[in-house]
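Input:
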Amino acid sequence: MRPFKYSRANDASQAVQLAVANKNAKFLAGGTNLLDLMKEDVERPTELVDGIRLFAGFV
Amino acid sequence: MSDDFDETSEPDLTTDEEALLKEVPTLTDVGQARRKFIGQSIAGGLGIFALSLLEQEKVLAALAISPDAMFAPAVGVENSVKVVFKINGATKSLELDSRMVLLDALRERLELTGSKKGCDHGQCGACTVIVDGRRVLSCLTLAATCEGKEVTTIEGLAQGDNLHPMQSAFIKYDGFQCGYCTPGQICSAVAMLTEAKNGEVSFVTADVRQSPRSVALTDDEIRERMSGNICRCGAYPNIIKAIQEVHSGKQAAQSWNFHRPETKLADAINDVLTKEATSDATV
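Output:
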């Protein structure tokens, strides 16, 4: 897996700010799909914005 | 008899033939030098191998790992993340690479090797652990995302020497052969029963509209809900029996016992004694 920066978002606006600041950032909403693709070098985000706790509220 | 061939007697040779025979090298001398060389090479090779082993041994002995090493911050890591979470009741603080998944953190940093790495792609379920009461695939969960959460692995299910009911049931019903998928199966089964208790429906639930209350699990329900955990030995029927017993709470009598030499001996003595008694009675 390629190195990436891990950022934790505490609220929705912070999550959006983090994601907008980096063109190659991706939201992490659990990761069962994204992490698998990153292990296979299909997805290559340079930053992951962890919004698991935030997104859990919407499900 | 004069016709008999005498093997010990020298054949009749002319002087020329005898001279020729002396010049021919005997077979025992052929390749002597080569054999010696090969022998020396092997001995030399073994000697060098043994020396290198001794050297390795020395270097490894010098690399004694301090007990705190696993909690030490990762050296030279570009994206290190600090995570504090509860693992089997104990709070642990780790500084690790952002890429590290929970499974690797458990196995490589916390020495909890009960959870197994099967496919590392979330397809086999061998790495299943319980996070905040829900089963998750630890190979596809970043350790960094577990901040403040409570992780339970197979090591944390038993209370001391008292096995978790699911663990006992797996032993009772032979819910495994090689055992590689078992930690994942048991963690999955424990969390699955909680899900059913909370009335969570599955794909095969007949009526998903019914008000959320405890779902009674049929074998089909268990098969569907446990479909994320694959067992190569094919112990599924026994796994279902084990889960069904814990789910129903009705204990069936165990149909087998551990073999103990002393009980076998006692049985044999009893057999002999009863036989003697009956033969005495008939006399």
